[in-house]
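The protein record quoted for completeness.
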Amino acid sequence: MTLSIPLEVQEILQTLESAGFKAYVVGGCVRDALLCQITRNPYIPKDWDITTSATPDEVMRVFADSKVLPTGLKHGTVSLIKKSVPYEITTFRIDGDYLNARSPESVHFSTSLEEDLKRRDFTINALAYHYHEGLVDRFCGLDDLQNGVIRCVGNANERLCEDALRILRALRFASLLGFTIEQSTKDAMFAHRQRLTKISQERIRVELTKLLCGKNVKSVLEEYAEIIAVCIPEIFPMIGFRQHHPYHHLDVWGHTILAIDRACEDSIIRWTMLLHDIGKPHTFTQKEGVGHFYGHAQKSALIAEKILDRLRWDKKTKCVILTLITHHDIVLESSPKSVRRLLSKLDNELFELLLEVKKADILAQNPSLISERLKNLAEIREIKAQVLDSQMAFCLKDLAVNGRDLQHIGITEGKEIGKILSTLLTLVIEEKIENTQASLLREARTLYHSAHK
């Protein structure tokens, strides 16, 4: 099987070989290049990694006239910069003992490609390629790639004990590629899932984010909920929690999974759907056999905030997700007034994200009762477009007056100007006064004099 390798990568291989060393492209880039041919889907490699018999010092000597960065000398890796693109070059190696469930305490350089491939996580990643030798496949990775199987290299228990993050990586690949996980690998994943508690929260966040955006996320979350719950224990109460409501034919976890699956493949939307109902088990009440979850959006936001903080999310993304969770069950009327009212609280971008959240939420509800809700949502989206096109006022800058206009009529105190402008905006949105300079200034005078009687 012949793979198309970028010219710059071929030049790196040829330069190392001319200096007397072996060199191959390896790992994910080979996997994705093969997937391109097998499935004809655009799994175009983003990064081309190179493995070589040359030590880091030898690599730096070979490329002495180029920019080489010692990015990971401890693990035998340097980065060669060509045309502003970094290429990682790593020496064949054998890993020492893993004592922290994440990385080896030491590495030993080797001259054997097979020894290097043997230490890798999954057979589909233990593939190397050389433009003359062709594909180097010591562990039947091509067969697994063609059959859609994720299998650990060698003993699954050993591989997952070495690096517990591989458990989430397996789930990520299963979600993104639509692959199944081979039984002994699956058994080992469940057996060693508690080792995920030793992994840094940032790495867990990265893997979960990729997992959530996969095409096969529904099957993965259904089958591996117990593993996901090690990373986010707060989801445990959702699993099997019946809702006892005509709008919901699934338990809370089942609804959550379906909502994620029905959402657009955007990481913020997918995380919002994962956490949007996490407060439901804590707010459940029942009246005449019908379940209610009063205040669950606010409770979900409180729980989600702790989770997002623990996973080290940046403040901006966290704020967006929490805002969407807080507003996900807000009742929206299909009227310009209602749309403008919400636009005054959220900007247009957040409003659009909220509509995506509400759509995914509806699509995960009882199929026999969602048509009217979807119709209403479509009407709201159309009204929002009309509001924006017609430039109806929904924020302070849309008002026909500003702070300077109020100063000209004798209102000079800053806080009072802000308060009056906010009140004027509310009156305009509620269609109680027109958005004209004359009407707004007249109302501003009235508000000012009423406050100073």
Observations:
- The chain has a mean pLDDT of 94.
- The two ends are 88 Å apart (CA to CA).
